[in-house]
Amino acid sequence: MSKRASTIPLHLRQGFHQAVEDYALWTPSVPEREIPVGFGLYSTTAICDLIQDEFTCPLPKDIVDRLFSYLGAPSYRDLAEKLSVSPNYATGAQCLRILIEREKAKGRRPREPRENR
User: Fold this and answer.
1) Is residue 69 part of a domain?
2) Structural domain harbouring 44
3) Rounded CA gap, 19 and 1, in Å?
4) Is there a domain that residue 20 lies in?
């Protein structure tokens, strides 16, 4: 699907914001929390899948800052750089999804979040 800069629908925007917030409480040893989006429940990675190829409209600063706080480890520098260059919903969703995949592969969470930019 092609990316579009159109405004992200409210239910997806709210679901993604909740997913970003919930990441702080998640650990790879438990399933991802299901978040209500529209009339369904979706995992964080499922929400990211709905957004990552679609919406290039800008993310709010507080969500960008929260994502950067998760990307402080040197192993996430590539994601932080990608988000810095393109702080939109599509990129934010891609970064959060990759972060979750990497954490699941390692089986642990980063030791300390990076300070907000």
Assistant:
1) yes
2) 10-106
3) 23
4) yes
CA–CA dist 117, 99 (Å, integer): 18
Closest CA to 91 of 71, 106, 111, 107: 71
Angstrom distance (rounded) from CA 38 to CA 43: 13
Q: 55 has which bridge partners?
A: 4
Total domain count for the chain?
A: 1
pLDDT in tens, 39-77: 999 999 999 999 988 899 999 999 999 999 999 989 999
Structure tokens at 75: 């192993």
Give the pTM: 0.86
Please state, in angstroms and rounded to a whole number, the distance separating the CA atoms of residues 79 and 68: 9
Chain Cα centroid distance, residue 114 = 15
What residue type is assigned to position 90 of the chain?
Answer: A
Domain-embedded: residue 88: yes
